[in-house]
Amino acid sequence: MLQFVNQRENIAVVRLLEFLSPSRPWHRSLWGIGVILAMEELFEACVAMRQGHLSDGAVRRMASSLQRRVGAHPAFTDQEKAFLREQVQQVPRAEGASHFGIRDLSRRVAADYLARWGQCVTANRFTPEHFGRSVAAHLLDAGFSGAYLHNFVKSRLKAAAPITLPQLCDELQNEVNANPRREFEVLLAFVTIPKFPNGLPQSWLQGPAITAWLKENGFDIAGVRAQAALILKVQARDVFGAAQAARSESDRYAARSLIAMAEPLNRVPWLWVKGAIAPASLKEDARGVGVKELFREDRVFSPDASHSVDAALELLAHLEGSSPPAAIAGGWGAIEGLLADPSDRASAADNLATLVTCSFPRAELTALSYKAQGAHPQVCSDIVNAETNRDRCRILAQLIIDGALPRMPSVTDEAAVDRLRKLLGNPGPELKTIRDAIGESFHRLYRQRNLILHGGRLDSVALEASLRTVAKLAGAGMDRITHGHYVQNLKPMELVAKANLGIALASRENVLDCVDLLEIN
Asked: What Å distances lie between residue 512 and 188, 312, 517, CA to CA?
């Protein structure tokens, strides 16, 4: 049971749980990485710059973004903020004092980062949104799975003994310290035996040996039909994370098999992690890339496909289901092909961020409008009778602006109302802040693509985090491009021009224009 001092603490916990849930829609998902991983990423980037895989400008952008984040972060002391500022006044050079200084600062703060947040809460130096995003990102970056963390936090909230938010922070810190990355065994099984030029390796299991392994580790063998199996050894912090790591490894094997033998691997659709109580689905980790406009406009099987848009959609599909390197290369290829200035490939990141930002108010208002009409049918009767989604959103936005929307029964929805109230109260700066946050994730995707394709780096510190944060955003942006192409008859860059104009004109005087920023004339 959470014992909170004020409503802000309750909202902070609710937002934390939202960010730890993989099923949340893109507009309520976690868009960025944590500040500790951002420091580690910069440390790695300095070496990549020396090797010629990242540009001076890319690293300079990272350093500037990190300085802004740390400068506004309540968990850093004034002395630590000043130290980082000194290290990034110039682009840090690999093996230099500033380079190692960034690494040492990240290690220092990481040692008690969550406990520091508890101290910030005690001193009332926090906002619910910053708390939720920062703590969730730090835990996920550290290698915990969202499912494990969600269960951990919920168990503390449901316990009979009361717990304060600072105490929850301390418990999360203890959980990080007590559960370092360790080796897990995961059984990956195959319906048919894969082809090997020299026969099945001796380390693989067959028939009765597979059944014996499953029984020995407490799994039900009913319905399991496998001719061969491989025991993977992966590094993770929890059993859910071990399953995620095994899925990635399995996808790599599937990709190699396809190009080596022109045949897909016939895998059993389950993974068995030693120490878990039940098998995990092999396909559970869908990254959330969604372009629903193709279905809405009945274009899935359209014969009159646009060469550029549809080619990009096929590349984007890799972002949903391929191995991490292929997902990043394909995902960025889709974005760059439609939105990059020929003289500046990185411009595609900012252009897509602008499109996604312009989609944010409508997405939040749409989801909330259905909750509002259910909770307050009389106040929201005009929403029920609205003819278009645009009208629904404008009516709800006006209710929020006027302060006429009663309090929502769900803390999650009330937190969304608070975010929208802040956005509608001063749309220009708020939209630009959102665009900057989303843009940073797309720039990270571009940097990861360069590290993979130019540097052959398949183990970058931010590779997995980049996929985790960018997939849903990329899907949302491509959804708008698809709508613009099929419904508005607009080229992707024409849509970007509308988005740029919409954000530039957003103000308190025309606040309801936030509802249709991509439809401005």
From this structure: 53, 32, 9
The pair of structure tokens assigned to 346 is 């990185």
Question: How far is the C-alpha of 248 from the C-alpha of 252, rounded, in Å?
Answer: 6
Alpha carbon distance 519, 111 (integer Å): 48
Residue 289's identity, in one-letter code, is: V
Query: What's the chain's length in residues?
Result: 521
Given a cut of 80, is residue 5 above it in pLDDT?
Answer: no
CB-based contact 289:316 (threshold 8 Å): yes
Cα 210 to Cα 190: distance, rounded to the nearest angstrom: 11
Structure token digits, residue 480: 């708008």
Q: Indicate the pTM of the whole model.
A: 0.93
Nearest-angstrom CA–CA distance, 403 and 425 = 11
Residue 297 binned pLDDT confidence (cut-offs 50, 70, 90)? low
| Cβ-proximal residues to 296 (8 Å cutoff; 6+ apart), any chain | none
| Terminal Cα distance for the chain, rounded | 51
Q: Which residue has the tokens 């926090």?
A: 126
Q: What one-character DSSP code corresponds to residue 323?
A: -
**What local confidence, expressed as pLDDT, does residue 284 receive?**
67
Q: Does the pLDDT value for residue 314 go beyond 90? A: no
**pLDDT tens per residue across span 57-97:** 999 999 999 999 999 999 999 999 999 999 999 999 999 99
CA–CA distance, 308 with 82 (Å, rounded to integer): 48
Distance of CA 244 to the CA centre of its chain: 15
Q: What is the mean pLDDT of the chain?
A: 93
